[in-house]
Each structure stands twice: as structure tokens, then as C-alpha cells.
Amino acid sequence: MCRLKFQMAAPFLVLSLVLSGCATTDNEQAIGGPPMSERGSASATDEAGIATRGAQGAQPFQGTELQNPASPLAKRVVYFDFDSNVVKTEYMPILKAHGEYLATHPENQVIIEGHTDERGSREYNLALGEHRAKAVQRILELNGAAKEQISSVSYGEEKPLDPGHTEAALTKNRRALIVYHQ
Amino acid sequence: MKLTWTRALGLLMLLISKQIPAQLTIQITGGAEGALPIALVPFRVENGAATPPEELTAIIQDDLHRTGLLQPLPHKDLIARPSALEEVHFQNWRALGVDNLVVGALASDPDGGYHGYQVRFELLDVYTANRLVGKRYRVQPTALRTLGHTISDTIFQALFGRPGGFNTQIAYVEIERNTDQTVHKLVVADADGHNPQIILTSNAPIMSPAWSPDRQRIGYVSFENGRSEVYVQEVASGKRRTVASFNGINSAPAWSPQGNRLALTLSKDGNPEIYVLDLATANLQQLTHNSSIDTEPVWTPNGQQIIFTSDRGGSPQIYRLPSAGGEAERLTFEGNYNARPALSPDGRLLGLVHRKDGKFKIAVLDLQTRLTRVVTEGPLDESPSFAPNGATLLYSSVLGSKSELATVSIYGRAHERLGVFSNTVQEPVWSPL
Q1: How near does any CA of chain B get to the CA of A149, in Å?
Q2: Which of A93, B8, B34, B164 has the fewest CB atoms within 10 Å, i.e. is most exposed?
């Protein structure tokens, strides 16, 4: 697994590093694991009274990769600053994982939902939400996802996660969501 | 006596819905400076007429006060209760500094064949001791509120020489958040917030209602198909059609002055841009071309230009360009957030959402002097919309867990709440005359 430190401010410069440094990453190996049937606990006892017995190994996650809570793919939300569609560098590893997952799973599709907080005007926020969704979409594409796998929709400020007016609510609402088709 | 006898038959025909919102309160939250002093004497109830269900003078007083151009005398300061010119001692009213006096009476209608009223009123000039207007109406009890607005219109026209527009309507979006679902409603109500009628209910968001110039249709944005699409609905029949459902955003409808075209925001080619859609031919013309946000178009009254919001300069600001296409000119320079432009009916003033001290407030930009005046306190005020008389701005704001529709006068800064709602109310827009 490729691990880069994202300390640079310019997201596109960071992106190019991601692309060149991680092109061969195969994160399927990191998850998965052998199926249950190959992992028995057969026991044997020899004449000298020596008994050997297998022990259950640490259980790897058994669901699909997308359902693994330990995978970066479990993270599907990108949060934004006010009136900004700049994807912060802390979200690059997550978006890289989704982009690469989509690249290796061409049968999967996602919708990117763009949302804003309630401040400012609604129509401007609808457009801003779309810019946020498109920013996330571009990064997924740069990481290998095909255009046809991704669509985007903006809800502006119309679907807040938290309808409250506190700073915490506003922070939660300025988001883009990656939603996988069922 | 030279009264104008008007039989307002139209008023009799009006069917007034009974959906009066329980939460509605009228509250005057600011005084008006420099407004003309006027006194409204409660209309006398004559010859055994039943007490009317609506206090006519209260309706008129609220209408006139809301303009910020008139300052009604408080009821407790009324020195006499005349009901006609002949009963008025003008010198007493002059001493109070009142310019104009409104008097009148309600009587039961002797030959109406129903439980109606005859209503007469007079607008008097206190200094010349003359009658400026006198009118008489026959009306059903259910139409008294409408009649009040008609009398307000008559008074406003007589004093200022232009229509008051008190018998107009507003549209707004109301959101009811239940634990299991959120219900979005598009509501049409009288201009003073009374008589709300729901014209659309949806589980998905509704945005940006826009009245056609003839008040017969409302354009709006609905997310009922999972994304923003633009609809046009006939107000009277409820019939509607989709007018824009391209890929991406379909939003921000604005009617051209002739009502035959809609300016819209579409992102069908990847970025939010402003287009003009011909409603008859479905022909589309793209007006903006750049990678930034361009949205919230409004037409100038002559239809020659479009005013809109763009962040092409790095922050949202207001711009103007020819409606036939051309170069955009930036109009706002004060502050780093100016959006949602609304033009006054004469095209001289621009209402907008303006960020100041971290709060979102309504401001008015004079397009001739280029001066900006902040007229509300925030912190989350939005959707300014001019009254057809050009004197009042309607907007929505957040009050803790509640929200309100309010008006503010652009002249005297008279603030008035049309209603405080436990549901969320947003995007009020005032109909044309």
C-alpha cells in the first residue's frame, strides 16, 4: 500500500504525486482473505501423547470490500470550508481509494451529492454544491474511475444533515457524499 | 355630498379560503422616521350592523405602516371618533400634527339579500379640510379583508400617485420536518401573510418560486425526480409542466417582463451558466460562458439586461449583462458576499443578500448613486423581494428554532413581521400588481 504524506497546499500537485506514486497499488490484497472453508481446526493426537490443535487465526473481514468498516472505502463524506469547493488534502487518501476501487470494479457506479450549509443565497448554494460534487468527481476520475461510472447531483442547502443553526451543524452540512448504486 | 359610489361586485365573488395560520402575528419591530403622519379612526358600526369579523382600519393601518411612507397615529392618541367629514373638527387634528385623516362606517346592507355590509370611507386632508377621496362599497363579511386592502390601495394612490399593490399575493416555501419525513410545500398567500393556500406538496425540496408578470403562473424548482428541474404551474388550475430537465442543475427561473421567456441557470454542459429559454419555441440562448458560478438571473424592467450573481471575481458579487448577450459589468464592490439580486419595479434599486460582520443581511444598492444601505440585522436573512409599490422589501429570516417572513421599508426602515412559523418558511416572493 502506498502511503504518501499530504502536506502540500495545492491539491492538484498532490494529486499528480498520488497518481505517479500509487499507480500499481492493489489494495484488494490488503482486505479479502481466504474463505472460511480453508481455515479448519483439524486436530491430531500421536502415540506419545503429544497433541496438536489448530487455533483460529485473527478473523479478516468477511463482507465485500465496500462494506469493510476498516477500509478507506468506508469513508464516503468530504467536508468543505465555507464558500469553497477545494477538496482538502486530508480527503485525498479516501478519494484515491474510491477512484481505484471504481477503476477495478467497472460494474460499480456512484453518485456524488454536493451539499452546502444554509448561509448565503440558495441558488448560489445550489451551484456551489454542484462545484463541490464536480471537484470530488474529478479526483475520482484522476484516480482511475471512468466518467461513465460517476454522476453528480447538487442539493445546495436544501438537504441539511443537521437542520440546526450551530457552527457544528453548518460544518456537518458543507459536504459531498459518495453514494454507491445498490 | 359628492361620494363616488362604487359597487365592488368583484369583491362579492371572492371565495376566501378558511386556512388561517394559527401562528400568524403582526408585530411592528421598528419605527418609521420621516413618514407622513396619518390618523385612521376605527370605522363606526351603524344601525345595528353585526360586529364585523375583521377590523377594517387595523388591516388598512398595517398595510400603510408597512410601506414606511406613512406613520399611523396610535389608537390611544385619537382625540375623537368622527365617521364623516361633517363631524371632523380639523383644528384639533392639525394640533396633533396629522396630515391626513381616514374616517368611515359600516352599516348592514338593507337590500343585499345577504348578511353583508355597506362600507363607506373618506380620506381627508387635515390642512385644507378637504375630502381627497370618498368611496362606498357593498361587501360580504368574508371579503372584508380584501376590501381593507382595496381601501389601502385607494389611499396610497391618492397620496403618492402610484399603485399600492396591497391586494397582491406572496408565494413562499414552507418545510415541515417530521421525524419520519420532511414535507415541502409551495404556498400562495395574501400580501399580508393571511389566507395561505398550498399549491404544491412534495417530499423533495422545492426552491425559487417566481411569479409570471401576469400573476397567472409560478415558475419553481422541484427535486421530485431526484435532482433540480424547473416547472411552470398555473396558479388558478394547479396545472403544470416541466420546462427544463437537462443533465445537471436546472434552476433559478426568472420571467422576462413580457412573460414569454425564462432566464434560467443550467449546468447541462458541465458548469452553472445563465440561459434564456423561449417558452413557446423551447429555444435556448446561453448568456454566460466561464468556469465560475453564474446564477440568480433577474430581468431589468425593460427586458434589455439581466442582473445576476457570479463568483468569477473570487467571491459572489452582482453583475449585469445585456439580455441579448455581451460583456458583464460588476455592480457590487462592498463586502465579499453579495448575492440573490432583486430589482425594484422601477429598476433603480437592487435588493441583495449581503454579508457584514459575519452575518447575512438584506441590503439595498441604489444603481444610480451606487450607495449600499444595509436594512436588516441578520444573521440569516435571505430572499429579498420588492413589493409592487417599490417601498417595501419582503424577506425571510431565522429566529432561533423558528423562522419568519418579514417586511422592511426601504425608506423609513419600518420593520414588520408577517408571521412567525414553527415550520421553516423561506424564499418569499411578492407577486406583481
Answers
A1: 15
A2: B34
